[in-house]
Amino acid sequence: MKNLLSLLGLLLVCQGALSQFKKDPVLNLQTEDLKLLNWGYYLGLNQYDFQFEYKNNVGQDILVDKSYGFNVGLIGELRINEFLDARFEPGLLYSQRILGFPGFTNEADAIREVRSTYIRFPLLMKASARRFGNWKPFITGGVYASMNLGSKEDSLDDNSSGEFRMKKNVYGYELGFGIDIYTEYFKFSPSIRGVFALSDELVPDNDPNSPWTGNIEGMRTRGFFINFTFE
């Protein structure tokens, strides 16, 4: 039943999107993009990964088992001109990753579960094409700062006690593309975003020769979003 409802919802979205491409459609929300300020919200999915840099490229890499998380947030948009907007998209993001460290025979030592709740503050630019009927493609990109509420950065315990620590403050950039679909009552905008952290997120273990973090030079988040925006 759940899969049937999901399929039905997808078909309805596709039907609504395809209807915007017919010849001479009725134009919806004709003054929507003329506002100086615009507001909205978004819901979406994410999948976060880690990119590791090693001091010595010997032995096996750390394995990352990824899963899907969710993101939700608000949108504030400032119109610059017909094709360019500045956007502030603060939001909340939850993700979960499981790390597998090589060289251990005991699962309690080899596996670390990393659950992260980020409060994100992206500042983005959105460049749009000219509107065609009731749809308009766009690309977006910019920088973000975020706080990892599950970082455990201040914990005195480390991996020798089963505690994997990360830094609380993370900085990076994101790039993406999508399409604005103008419905009768609101603007619906699905998009795909790539997220790339610039700051090293690892808090090393207290022992510099730790079998968990001793060979890690840097650890940075990589991931993608699928966002659904309503404005």
What's this, in brief?
This protein has helices spanning 2-18, 107-110; strands spanning 37-54, 63-66, 68-79, 84-88, 91-100, 111-128, 135-148, 169-182, 187-197, 216-230.
Helical/strand content category: mainly beta
Give the proportion of residues in helices.
under 10%
- β-strand number: 10
Q: How much strand?
A: over 45%
CATH topology heading: Porin
Provide the CATH top-level class: Mainly Beta
CATH architecture tag: Beta Barrel
Largest sheet, strands/sense/barrel: 10 strands, antiparallel
Average pLDDT for all residues: 89
Structural Rg: 21 Å
**What oligomeric assembly is this protein in?**
single chain
Elements, N to C (H/E): HEEEEEHEEEEE
Q: Span between N and C termini?
A: 30 Å
Folded structure, characterized:
InterPro entries: Beta-barrel_OMP_2 (IPR025665). Keywords: Signal. The structure is a single chain. The chain is mainly beta and 231 residues long. The protein has a single domain (28-230), classed as Porin. The chain contains two helices and ten strands, in the order αβββββαβββββ. Strands 1, 2, 3, 4, 5, 6, 7, 8, 9 and 10 form a ten-stranded antiparallel beta sheet that branches. The radius of gyration is 21 Å and the shape is elongated.
